[in-house]
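Quarterly update from the structural biology core.
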Amino acid sequence: MGVVRLSCLIAGVGTLMVTVGLGGAAATGAEAETPTFADDVAPILYENCVACHRAGEMAPMSLVTYEETRPWSRSIKNKVLSGEMPPWHADASVGEFRNERRLTDAERDTIVQWVDAGAPRGDLDKLPAPPTFIDGWQIGTPDVVFEMAESFDVPAEGEVAYQNFAMPTNFTEDKWVTAIEVRAGAPAVVHHILAFARVPGAAPRPPAFRFIPVSEQAVAAEHARAERARARGQEPGPLAGGPGTLIGLMAPGTNPMVLEPGTAMRVAKGTQIIFSIHYTTNGEVTSDMSRIGMIFTDAPPSQEVRASQIMNPYFEIPAGDGNFQVDTLIEFTQDVEIDGLLPHTHLRGKRWEYHMLYPDGRREHVLSVPAYDFNWQTLYQFKEPLSAPKGARLEASAWYDNSAANKANPDPTVSVRWGEQTWEEMQYTGITYRVVEQ
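Predicted structure, tokenized:
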């Protein structure tokens, strides 16, 4: 789900030396060096912002033209200086990611200087052509599009429970997918969509790792789950974190899944796509009909990308606790390369940390999200795949604020357990990876 960003090389802005009697001449020289929208700011916005900040997308305003951007210039400066925009919450000192949206110091300084100078337009003849988007799809024209069978009417007010919608693909053969994009029909009321794939009646494909309980509660629950499975004459399967395997996501801060050349994801014949949608009301009754698009490759890839999930549903966050920790530990049963990790909690989630524990005893910090924000969901895609040999363990830790100090907390007076609704909680990580064939 990466965004390709070209670094904009900004010429250094000279320091204006104002001396008595030379104000007019000095100002003229400064104007020549002041960043303008056409020359300096538009390239930054086109590379980093307009995928979302354009007509028909989820961002609240378009930033494509000067006329659209100028009224928001002060707000843009404040958001850039605070680090709120572009949305990127990973600690820069831990790991490198190919879909990083962080501005360079030069880009940030250019925007600030442009706003402080009064947001001049510049020569529009020098304005670069804005990016083109095909029929609203960021991945290009999909080979197939699946849409909800019926629209869903979101009420004007109140809390809306998660809604699930099933869409048959009618695939008569396995498909190899290189890009997946989930699009909201009504972006104003769709906070996020999780797109799952399942084949009705078929057992889920085992992942290349196993869950290791790390608490007494988890040990007891896993033991009980195993006993129930064996009583049915079955071996306990992997933990299920939803109606299938997560293959796509639409949320603030998340871009479409576009896989690297030579890789693809297998979507089995007979697959159903399940949308799990979180709606938010906005004062008006709004009808939504969301959809998902896929691009196929004609032949199996040299490497298969697999999607799965890591979770710990065995927890209880005490009422009023402002820093409660929940851990998950998995052990890889095959050699794999991890492409990306997507941390997900609800309104009480505040921080995530991930460490790789190698068979030789090394412990590596691989991802840190020190200020997790439910309003932004990001699949962090490693610049170089993270090697996880057989026997390596991945430790995922999340912290929660269930206190009154958390302004987003639905109710700090109650204990919280696992659940799909936003007033409940999750300790869930989406993971994309490749099995290394020997």
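Confidence is low (pLDDT under 50) at residues 1-30.
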